C-alpha cells in the first residue's frame, strides 16, 4: 500500500500502513451501516424487463445522474473499432492505487486518458448487491472510466457485469486474466486463467451475454508458465474472440507462476513488444492495447505509429502493424504530471489546460473538503492523502515533503477524521516546510524540475 514515500523510519512506515488499513476497514463497516434498505432501493426503478429507467441524482461527489440514464439509450457495439481513438492512451488498473480519489486527482491533469478502477472481485459485488458504492462509487469527471473485474466463475462474473450496468454507465468492463499476485494464483483467477482458455471463453461469453450496453474486454499476458508459445497465445486470443471479445489489453511479458513475487513478475520476465504487434497482424478485426514497461510518451507514440520514421519488426525482420492503444502503469502513479500534456499529444486537444502544481493541489484540496463532508467511502484522511505523495515528483526536496506528510498523517489523521482539524492545514504545513514556492508555479514537462532545490 502506497501510504508513504521517501526514506523513513521502519516503525513509522508500518504505523502509517496499519493506519491506512484500519481506516479502510472502519470506513467499509460504517458505510454499510449508513445505507438503509429503503435508500438503496430508491436508487433505481426498473421496467418489468429489468431495464433501468431512472436513477437517483447524485451531487458532484456521487456516482449517478444523467450518465446513468444515458446508459438506457447508449448503443452497444461489437465492432473492434467501436472505441475509435478514445482508448489510445490509458492508465492500468492497479490494486490500492487507482481508487476513486486518485482517479479524480488524475482528471485534474488529463480529461481524455482512459482510466481503470482497481480490480474488483466478482464476489464483492455478488454478495453485496445493495451496497455497491464502496466498490463502484466514482465522480462523473472520472469518465471515461472502465471497471476491472476479477474472478473465475462465469455465473458470478456475469452477475457482476449486470450489477455494474445497473449502477452506472461505465466505458468498459474488463476481465483480469493477467494478475500475478499470490492471492490470484492460489484462487485460480488473474494470470491463472491463461491456463484454461475454455474457461475464459465461458466466462467472457457469460459476461457478454449479461452486458447490454458495455464493451467487455480482457487483460492478460503474452503467456504463463506452461503456456508460453505463440500457438498457446493464439489459442487464448481465439477463445476470447469466439465469445465476442473484440478488444484485449496485453502485458508484453509472460507470467512466472512459481518462484517470482508479483513485483518481480513486473520486471524480470523479458518484454516482447513484437508479440503484441504480431497479434494485431494476425487478428486484424480486433483491437490490441500494449501494456508493460512503458514509462514515457515518446515510447508510447512509437508503438502507436505516431512517429513516421519508427517501424516495428519481428525476429524475421517482417514489418508489423502498430498497436491500437498503449497502457501505462506505475509510472502514472509515480510521476502523475507526465499526463499533463496527454490530451494535447494524443488527442489533439490544443485547448487542454496545463495547471500548475499549486493549482492541482488547490483543486484536490477542495475535493477533499467536499468528500470528507459527504463521508463517502474512501474519504478517511489516510486514504484520501495517498495521491498527494507524488505531486511534487521531480523536486529535489520531494523526499523531505513525503517524510513530513507521513509524519503529519501519523500525528493528525484521527483529529482530521473527527473534524477537529482541517486536512488542508496539515497538507499545506508539509508543503510550506519543504517545497520551494517557485515549484508550485511550474507546469512544464516532468524532468525539467529537478533543478530546484
Class per helix and strand makeup: alpha/beta
- Helical stretch count? 20
Identify low-pLDDT runs.
1-19, 21-83, 446-453
Q: What fraction strand? A: 5-15%
Report helical residue fraction: 40-55%
CATH architecture term of the largest domain = Alpha-Beta Barrel
> What order do the strands of the largest sheet run in, or round the barrel if closed?
3-12-9-8-7-6-5-4
Number of DSSP E strands: 12
Which topology of the largest domain does CATH recognise? TIM Barrel
CATH class of the largest domain: Alpha Beta
Main sheet specs: 8 strands, parallel
As a whole number of angstroms, the C-alpha radius of gyration is 22 Å
Question: Mean of residue pLDDT?
Answer: 83
Describe the structure.
With 453 residues, the chain is of the alpha/beta class. Strand 7, helix 10 and strand 8 form a beta-alpha-beta unit. The strands form three sheets. It has an eight-stranded parallel beta sheet with strand order 3-12-9-8-7-6-5-4. The longest helix has 25 residues, at 10-34. 43% of the residues lie in helices and 13% in strands. The chain starts with 9 loop residues before the first helix and ends in a 13-residue tail after the last helix. The chain has two domains: 10-28 and 355-440, no CATH class; 44-347, Alpha-Beta Barrel (TIM Barrel).
Amino acid at each position: 500500500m502506497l501510504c508513504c514515500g521517501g526514506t523513513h523510519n521502519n516503525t513509522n512506515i508500518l504505523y502509517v500502513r496499519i493506519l491506512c488499513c484500519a481506516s479502510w476497514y472502519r470506513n467499509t463497516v460504517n458505510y454499510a451501516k449508513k445505507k438503509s434498505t429503503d435508500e438503496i432501493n430508491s436508487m433505481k426503478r426498473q421496467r418489468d424487463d429489468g431495464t433501468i429507467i431512472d436513477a437517483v441524482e447524485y451531487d458532484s461527489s456521487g456516482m449517478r445522474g444523467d450518465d446513468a440514464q444515458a446508459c438506457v439509450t447508449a448503443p452497444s457495439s461489437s465492432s473492434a473499432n467501436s472505441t475509435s481513438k478514445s482508448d489510445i492512451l490509458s492508465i492500468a488498473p492497479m490494486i490500492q492505487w487507482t481508487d476513486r480519489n486518485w482517479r479524480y486527482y488524475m482528471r485534474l491533469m488529463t480529461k481524455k486518458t482512459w482510466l481503470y478502477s482497481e480490480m474488483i472481485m466478482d464476489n464483492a459485488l455478488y454478495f453485496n448487491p445493495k451496497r455497491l458504492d464502496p466498490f463502484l462509487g466514482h465522480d462523473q469527471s472520472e469518465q471515461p472510466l472502465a471497471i476491472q473485474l476479477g474472478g473465475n466463475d462465469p455465473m458470478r462474473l456475469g452477475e457482476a457485469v449486470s450489477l455494474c450496468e445497473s449502477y452506472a454507465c461505465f466505458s468498459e468492463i474488463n476481465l483480469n486474466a493477467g494478475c500475478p499476485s499470490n492471492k490470484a494464483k492460489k484462487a485460480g483467477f488473474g494470470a491463472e486463467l491463461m491456463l484454461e482458455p475454455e474457461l475464459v471463453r465461458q466466462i467472457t461469453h457469460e459476461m457478454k451475454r449479461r452486458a447490454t450496453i458495455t464493451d467487455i474486454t480482457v487483460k492478460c499476458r503474452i503467456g504463463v508458465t506452461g503456456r508460453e508459445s505463440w500457438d498457446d497465445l493464439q489459442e487464448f486470443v481465439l477463445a476470447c474472440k469466439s465469445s465476442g471479445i473484440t478488444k484485449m489489453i496485453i502485458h508484453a511479458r509472460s507470467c512466472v507462476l512459481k518462484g517470482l513475487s508479483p513485483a518481480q513478475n513486473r520486471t524480470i520476465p523479458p518484454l516482447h513488444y513484437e508479440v503484441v504487434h504480431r497479434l494485431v497482424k494476425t487478428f486484424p478485426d480486433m483491437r490490441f492495447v500494449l501494456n508493460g514497461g512503458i514509462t514515457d510518451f515518446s515510447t508510447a507514440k512509437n508503438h502507436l505509429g505516431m512517429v513516421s520514421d519508427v517501424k516495428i519488426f519481428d525476429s524475421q525482420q517482417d514489418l508489423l502493424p502498430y498497436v491500437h492503444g498503449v497502457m501505462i502503469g506505475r509510472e502514472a502513479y509515480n510521476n502523475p504530471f507526465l499526463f499533463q500534456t496527454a490530451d494535447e499529444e494524443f488527442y489533439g486537444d490544443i485547448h487542454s489546460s496545463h495547471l500548475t502544481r499549486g493549482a492541482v493541489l488547490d483543486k484536490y484540496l477542495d475535493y477533499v473538503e467536499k468528500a470528507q463532508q459527504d463521508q463517502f467511502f474512501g474519504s478517511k484522511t489516510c486514504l484520501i492523502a495517498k495521491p498527494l505523495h507524488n505531486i511534487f515528483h521531480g523536486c529535489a526536496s520531494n523526499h523531505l515533503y513525503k517524510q513530513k506528510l507521513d509524519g503529519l498523517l501519523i500525528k493528525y489523521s484521527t483529529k482530521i477524521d473527527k473534524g477537529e482539524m482541517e486536512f488542508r492545514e496539515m497538507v499545506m504545513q508539509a508543503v510550506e516546510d519543504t517545497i520551494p514556492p517557485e515549484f508550485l508555479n511550474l507546469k512544464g514537462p516532468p524532468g525539467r524540475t529537478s533543478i530546484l532545490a
